[in-house]
Structure formats: structure tokens, C-alpha cells
Amino acid sequence: MGETTVKTQEGRTATPSPITDEELPAPKLTLLRRLRTPRRPRIWFEVLLIAVSYWTYSLIRNAVPEQKTQALKNADWVWSVENHLSIAVEQSVNHAVNSVTWLIVAMNYYYATLHFVITIGVLVWLFRFHPGRYAAARLVLFATTVVALAGYYLYPLAPPRLMNGGHFIDTVLVHHTWGSMASGNLKNMSNQYAAMPSMHIGWSLWCGLIIFALAKAPWARILGLLYPAATLLVIVSTANHFWLDAVGGMICLAFGFTVARLWYGALPHQLPRLPTR
């Protein structure tokens, strides 16, 4: 088989020039190429997608069997590893911050609310001011969350506050903070042994990096970096996570950025602010 030829009136043959993707009319572009081209997001679709996605995430996360015995064994192992690495300071931080009532109560509410409020706020900001980057940034968040679900299933882990003989303080239980599903009356609505990886870190670091990369105001970029740092302090102070849970969240986020880079050919901040037609 060779090149297709066309016979002319003079009897000579001519080879037609190949048709490139750029020369194809829009209706003939492949579905894959359309999906990989950032487009202006539609508000009704995004609201529905986020609502369904979070409902599915909660359903799957809470459907993971609560393997209490294995989760406690894993917690003991993580704690021993941190002691070996001389980074097992969670208990000291937990007791120190708990001694300042107003501070630990504020952290309890921080843990229960900002995880959702800030993440949704960043998504709205992207939708409004960076529509060309929105889809890629959203893909990072979704891919991060999906791989975290695998972590919850494969590696059940008890948080420090539920360890046997760990002497950690359950700050929500002690201070009767409302709104958290980690302890108290709402604890039966959430899987208590899904601490690895920490999505409080995964999501907050996603918010911080997106804000740092795209915000113009220096103060906003600084706050973007401070947010995941503050979240790290909160999850340790409230005895909801180990340091290594935070590392797990960072690894999941790295996976999310990799997926977006492979799909769109660039990281979110490298894409045009406005989508091309």
C-alpha cells in the first residue's frame, strides 16, 4: 500500500496533501479531543456534578467496612513509625492546644466547616474568574478524592483520638462542639476509621496551591499558603490525624495533578484563563 494518487488529464499522477487536524471542520473533531479542550463551564451542570460527586464520595467512604481491629493495629504501627522517626509530637500538641479552651473550640469548628466552605469558595472563584482553568482544576480535585477512597478501603486507620492507650484527647467530645461527624452524636454517620489519607490536607493544599498560582494580590497568595499549614495544625491538635496522614493526602493530590496534566497537556494554571471557542 502506498500513497493515494490522482490521475490528471495529462496522464500524470499527483499526490494529494495530507489533511491535518487543524484543517478538519469542527463537527469532525474527535470526541476525545473535544473532551480534552477546556470549555466554559455551565453553572447548572457544575452544581449537579459537585452535588452528585460529594454524595457518591460520602456514600462510598461510609460504606467501607469499619475494620476496627485492623484500624487500631495500623494506628499503633503508624505511631511506632513516627516515634522511630522522632516526629511523634501529636500527643504533646493535642494536650497543649486543648489547654486553651477558646483556641481548641475554634479549631473544632474550623475542622468541621472550612473543609467544605473554602473548597467550594475556590471552585466558585475559578468558575467566575478563570473559566478556562476550571475544568482542569476540578479534575485535580476529583482525581485526588477518588484515589483517597482507595486508601480508605485498603488501609483502615484509626485516628489518634480512638487509639487504645494513646492518651489523646477527643476535643470535640470534651468541649461538646456541634457540627463535626468525627465525634459526638454524629459519629455514627461517618466512618471513624478512614483517617488515611487526610482529605482535609488534600483539599486544603489544592485550595492553597490554586490560590497561590492564580491570585494576583500578594496577601491572597500568602493566605493561600497559610491555609493548608493552618489545616495541618488543626488536624493534629484535634487528634483527628497523624502527621503521616497528611503525607498521604499530599501524595493523593500529586496523583490528581498528574491526571490533569496528562489529560489536558498542562497544569491548571498553565492553561488560558478564558477558554478558546
TrEMBL record:
The main location class comes to membrane
Q: Which UniProt keywords apply?
A: Membrane, Transmembrane, Transmembrane helix
Polar residues bias locations = 1-18
Extract one GO cellular component term from the record.
membrane
Subcellular localization, as worded in the UniProt entry = Membrane
> What does the record say about its membrane topology?
Multi-pass membrane protein
Transmembrane stretches, start-end: 43-60, 109-127, 139-155, 193-215, 222-240, 246-264
The segment(s) forming the Inositolphosphotransferase Aur1/Ipt1 domain are 77-257
Which InterPro entries does the entry link to? Aur1/Ipt1 (IPR026841), IPC_Synthase-Related (IPR052185)
Q: Which Pfam family would be a valid example here?
A: PAP2_3
- Location of the region described as Disordered in the Swiss-Prot/TrEMBL record: 1-22
Q: What is this protein called?
A: Phosphatase PAP2 family protein
Organism per entry: Streptomyces beijiangensis
